Queue: 2 jobs
Job 1
Amino acid sequence: MLRKCVNHPDNFCYVRGDLTFKDQRRSLNPLFKKCYELYFGCKVGDQDKNWTPHICCLTCVKRLTDWAKGSRHNQRGSHLKLL
């Protein structure tokens, strides 16, 4: 039996899995992918699959890039958490 999700995966943030509204969605660009790898210690994966999110929320993009730039407000683990 073929199962189909009710919601499209790109309605959810890749990092936190939260519902993300259209105006808050950002693509997973190369800078984001590099910051993600440095922060979490693993690469963004499964982007060739249709069941995985291909977007991230604006908050996670901002916090990850701020962390990579050395912002004191975004210490490792203080704001971003895996599910």
Job 2
Amino acid sequence: MDISALTADIKARFAAACCGPLPFVPAPAAFRKRAGQTTVEYLLMLAVVAGMAAMMAVLLHRRILGGIFTLVGMIIGAGTPK
């Protein structure tokens, strides 16, 4: 037996023992990348993040403004009157 044939046989046996036979299964048409798909996915994700930020701002606007005014008061030094 030739050394290259022996090496090829060892590699084939090792691949079969480690991974087993891996049949080629083509991806369904629904999962294939189409032109412009990445841009649409990015814009949808951006819309979700912007929507969540807007909802949080609407729900927590009083606390946000209170925190800002508290920081401004601490910086200016307008603490409690004596």
